[in-house]
Design brief:
By secondary structure, this protein is mainly β. The protein has one domain (about 5-70). It contains no helices and 6 strands. The strands form 2 sheets. Strands 1-2-3-4 form a 4-stranded antiparallel beta sheet, with no helix packed on it. Strands 5-6 form a two-stranded antiparallel ribbon. Strand 2 (about 15-20) and strand 3 form a beta hairpin. The radius of gyration is 11 Å and the shape is globular.
């Protein structure tokens, strides 16, 4: 069973930290603030932030113009 450890969101975007060491992001990505290595208008459904694989993210945070992760 997949576990959800942490959710960070604002009005336009969301980042989830999962128990299997993955982070998912979706929402406004107009300036690439979701960390998906793409710039677009809106991302849905949630997509894995692949550049974070294996880094052991300890927490996630969202703001209007960026997403942040502590490793």
């Amino acid at each position: 069973m997949l576990s959800l450890l942490l959710v960070s969101c604002n009005v336009l975007q969301w980042v989830d930290q999962l128990g299997d060491d993955r982070c998912l992001a979706w929402g406004n990505n107009l300036h690439g603030q979701l960390g998906l290595n793409e710039i677009g208008s809106y991302e849905e459904p949630p997509r894995e932030i692949k550049t974070l694989r294996g880094f052991g993210v300890s927490t996630v945070a969202c703001s209007d113009n960026f997403s942040g992760m502590l490793i």
